[in-house]
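Morning F.,

Quick status update on the modeling queue. The single chain you submitted on Monday has been processed. Sequence for confirmation:
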Amino acid sequence: MASISGSSQHGVAEAASVTVLGRLASSQVEARQEVIKDPRITVLSGVWFEATRLAGFDIAAVIAVRHPQEVIASLAARSGASPELSSALWLKYNLLAERHTRALPRLFVEYPNLLDNWRRETRNKADFRGARDRSQHPR
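Structure tokens below.
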């Protein structure tokens, strides 16, 4: 099994940050919110969060929680993954999402509601808006 040294890991993170910054800069967003959805964002959250901060954005996390049975069925259909592996992946990624966003304003929403209307889901959550306001104006 290959390993990456500390300095090489830093180089990989810097290169990834440059890529993310380029993506953010090229989006030319004039809206107040930019939404980034990346299937690997849970694993790469440190890179995304650092690049986003460097680009001058405030960060808030919306975590879509999907029923484990839906994930099991989806992974089985897509890649033939076993129910045991799918369950383990669901648990791992949900725990990582929780851990990696503890220091951020965050909102947990049900996956179907987020797909139905993400703007409504984030706009209608008073606690989330309050958390974002408190993070921008700490006491």
